[in-house]
């Protein structure tokens, strides 16, 4: 049931996203919203079909020892606020984004999801919480996107937030994205410190791959 429940959660999230935006907008002729909802559902379906079973189980029901109890609940509030603002913007016309940019945002969102998927499929220890998985014999992952930055999944998630915000067609709805980015930068630093201190081999990996999210910058 792990794969089925994992896929179902993503599909439900996509439906809830669409329902909130369309409901607040009072209309459904928003192509960027349709695109984001479809991409979310597709991402979840693909990940549930080909992802490592142990990783999927860890993401659904992570083990003990989480060092970050802030990012997930605050991110949920940020996402909900963004969806509501985008819908209200579509209804009242506060700050619409031109259609060509909406299309570009949707394309960028798709590419960012591919990057996140690559990171997750490469790393069977990709948990939904910040912890050292001694119960799963965790080891540093150095292949694929991890050869370029230490936290490619978080980098992809940040670009998803930026591009997805453009795709749903509201400039003002991008404001909560700043909070989301700040949360993931904080989480990156927190996880990096934890892994360097407690995961054997990670400190050596960190010396080889210097940047956390963006090569040459951070």
SSE layout:
Elements: H1 2-25, H2 31-50, H3 53-60, H4 71-92, H5 99-122, H6 152-167, H7 175-198, H8 202-208
Helix pairs in contact: 1-2, 1-4, 2-5, 4-7, 5-6, 6-7
Strand content: under 5%
Helices and strands, in order, run as: HHHHHHHH
Main beta sheet:
none
Class from secondary-structure proportions: mainly alpha
Mean pLDDT: 95
Runs with pLDDT <50, length 5+? Answer: none
The first-to-last residue Cα distance is 39 Å
Q: Please indicate the count of domains.
A: 1
Name the overall outline: globular
Helical run tally: 8
CATH class: Mainly Alpha
CATH topology type = Four Helix Bundle (Hemerythrin (Met), subunit A)
Helix content: 55-70%
Radius of gyration of CA atoms, rounded to a whole number = 18 Å
In CATH terms, what is the architecture?
A: Up-down Bundle
Provide a quick synopsis of the model:
The protein is built from 8 helices and no strands. The protein has 218 residues and is an all-alpha fold.
Key words describing this protein structure:
single chain, 218 residues, mainly alpha, Four Helix Bundle (Hemerythrin (Met), subunit A), 8 helices
What does this protein structure show overall?
- The protein has 218 residues and is an all-alpha fold.
- 67% of the residues lie in helices and 0% in strands.
- It contains eight helices and no strands.
């Amino acid at each position: 049931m792990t794969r089925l429940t994992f896929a179902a959660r993503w599909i439900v999230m996509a439906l809830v996203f669409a329902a909130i935006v369309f409901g607040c907008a009072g209309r459904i002729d928003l192509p960027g919203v349709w695109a984001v909802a479809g991409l979310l559902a597709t991402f979840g379906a693909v990940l549930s079909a080909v992802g490592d079973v142990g990783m999927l189980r860890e993401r659904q029901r992570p083990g003990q020892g989480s060092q970050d109890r802030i990012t997930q609940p605050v991110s949920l509030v940020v996402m909900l606020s963004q969806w509501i603002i985008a819908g209200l913007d579509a209804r009242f016309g506060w700050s619409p984004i031109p259609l060509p940019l909406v299309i570009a945002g949707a394309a960028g969102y798709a590419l960012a999801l591919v990057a996140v998927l690559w990171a997750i499929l490469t790393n069977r220890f990709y948990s939904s919480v910040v912890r050292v998985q001694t119960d799963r014999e965790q080891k540093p992952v150095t292949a694929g996107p991890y050869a370029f930055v230490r936290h490619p999944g978080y980098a992809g998630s940040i670009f998803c937030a930026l591009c997805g915000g453009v795709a749903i067609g509201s400039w003002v709805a991008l404001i909560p994205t700043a909070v989301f980015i700040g949360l993931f930068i904080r989480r990156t630093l927190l996880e990096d410190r934890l892994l360097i201190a407690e995961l054997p081999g990670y400190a050596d990996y960190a010396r080889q791959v210097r940047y956390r999210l963006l090569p040459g910058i951070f």
